[in-house]
Amino acid sequence: MKNNFSSQVKEIISLSREEALLLGNDFIGTEHLLLGLLREGNNKAVSALQSFNIDLRALRSEVEMAVKNNNGKGIANLIRIPLTEEAENVIRETVIEAKDLKNLTVESEHLLLSILKNKESKSARILHQHGADYDLFRNELAKEKNNQSGSIKLENDYPSNKKNIHAFWQIFLFEIKYRLKRPDTYLYFLVFFSITFLAFGFGNVPASDKTYVNAPIVLTKFFTIFSIFMMVVTAAIMGAPLYRDLEYNTHEYYLSYPITKNDYFWGRFFGSFFFVVIIGSSLVWGSLFGTLIGPKLGWLSANRVGPYHIINYLQPFLVYVVPNLLLTSSIFFGLVAYTRNVKVVYTGGVILYLGYMMSLFIFHNAQNKNIIFILDAFGFVPINLIERFLSPEQKNSLLISLQGQMLMNRIIWSSVGIAIILITYFRFSFIRFFVGRTDKKVQRTRSIKYLAF
Amino acid sequence: MQLVINALSKTYPNGVQAVKNVSLTLNNGMFGLLGPNGAGKSSLMRTIATLQEADEGTIFLDDLNVLTQKKQTRQLLGYLPQEFGVYPRISAEQMLDHIARLKGIGNASERKELVDALLDNVNLYKDKKKRLGTYSGGMKQRFGIAQALIGNPKLIIVDEPTAGLDPAERNRFYNLLSYIGENTIVILSTHIVEDVSTLCSHFAIINEGEVLYAGTPDDALLEMNGKVYSKSIPKNAVQQYKNQYHVISTQLKAGSLYIRVFSKEHPGDDFIPGEPTLEDVYFYHVGEKAAINIF
User: Fold this and answer.
1) How far is A404 from chain B (nearest CA, A)?
2) How much is the pTM?
3) The domain defined by A2-145 carries CATH number 1.20.120.790
4) pLDDT tens digit sequence for A79-128
5) Does A158 touch chain B (CB under 8 A)?
6) What are the chain A neighbours of B29 within 8 Å (beta carbons)?
7) CB within 8 A of A4, min separation 6: which ones?
8) CB–CB of A248 and B86 under 8 A?
9) Is B109 near chain A, with CB under 8 Å?
10) How many H helices and E strands in chain B?
11) By CB distance 3.0 to 4.6 Å, which of A106, A174, B38, B89 could disulfide with A98?
12) Domain range annotation of chain B
């Protein structure tokens, strides 16, 4: 095996022996192997150490210090000084390193590699302190073997025909992937699905005995009220995206990438809103599976379940759930964009919820029903009002038609949702949001306010 | 490529003028921006990195107007900020893939190769699937340089990159940077003089938003040649000497106080001529400005 040691390495090993003698040791350890390398000087290992900016003189003295006077006794046997077990292992490893790098002969650099590899040895530790690294060195050698220059493989290996992938899609997809990794996403879906599933499964829905559990009016009412409860989810999911870059301080470099405000803002918004809608769809799945499975499990009598029409599920979802979710999503996303603070979303959510409940209470007995149709952002009370005028047969078969005042309500509040997000978009500026410096106009108005006191 | 900065100025809304009429010309290679904390290095770098606006002046990267053509500049840019965070739950590989896409590398296999090569070069290949939140300080720095290198940037801006790294990591970082510097413009800001003397072919000293000196380390030392003298003095005599001579710096060596002074001729009086160091250059220029400010 020692046949494929290069003459240089053989020289180094014999120099190691001399080093041991010079230091008064009666063994040859890895430290002496390292000293031998340094002593020979004209080898690749030493050049590598130099290229790592390692002070060779300091290295030598530290290694010498490590082995000097390790034994009290004099040098008894000058002819044969044994290798320590550690040194023997290193030499054995050297052959393996050479093989790994597919070199025909064992060279000085393989010796250095195997010294570095055994991290426990004194030599390795000293080398490590000086910044020499097994991985780094090995990578270097591997590269040279592959006939590449020392520079990083970034050069024109890659054609510069950078396809202009719209950064919007990248950010959108990133948002989706991020959401998918978060356990709370699944939790929200599960919670709403389960509640809906159990409610419909057991027939615990706002339906009288003469009404089907899956009647259009029942689905509409249930979906709408739960879209209001989903405010919690909307707040959590929509509050996060912009704030995440602030919280994790990633904006520092993110903004030096070639993305525009468009890409960033809409990518973040739609990426998260997509999930809000998916969680909203749990109402559809829950109600559907509830009425399918409930009777089979004996929770619900089969005669309470009416015919299935996709439109009965789709219409309430698209007319009430989605616009309601859009409204709250825009509000919460906008709040974070404006205040740069995520806590405000939770307070905002609570206020919004209480505000809505209070307004229901206040306008409960309003004489002028028109006010209710216009002011009810989520459409809940208007639905109830319309229901009063439906006969049991109508309740079972008719969707609330989108006309008249109901149509007005939906148009107004969908527009409000869209308007809020558009206003937020136009007011949003990367620099102002991330760097946080208020512009001069705001500063002036603020200072005026203080003066007024 | 050449980066030409001309009469650049920036004042923050709170009145602080962070960059005052800075003019510099940079070619391929490592360029050091040396200055104390708060000197305006970061402000200057952030302006070049298109992260903030300038009030006056121009920056041109060859024919590209950096201040007005931000998106095109960003295609050629790599930036490693002084402080940055990472999304904790994403792995290094996924984040670099995302960034590579943002920087316009469309082909999936090309991207994978590039990301793998980069991770390999910064020695994070074996940790590529680990979440960024688990990374140590040194690993995060290396990730930072990897993200700056994506897309073969022609201009790399590195802000105080070795702060917080231990000496071995710093060494490794230097090696990495010096490989990169061959075909790109690398601007490195630091307050550690040794970083500049080790790595940079050209440098500038900045303090209080102004460029106090620009040139090569060798030239800087040459200018100080024969003008730096040192003497050991009693500790209570410092003020006396400061009044009499142009004291560049004071140092403690083995318990005694030494002063280094700048003088065109031998000041006599037991002063020993000293070999000028880059630190002398630094203290000389930074101190001179401070002295002027007193009046």
Assistant:
1) 47
2) 0.68
3) no
4) 567 888 888 888 888 888 887 777 777 888 888 888 888 888 888 888 88
5) yes
6) none
7) A95, A98, A104, A105, A106
8) yes
9) no
10) 10, 14
11) A106
12) 3-216, 222-294
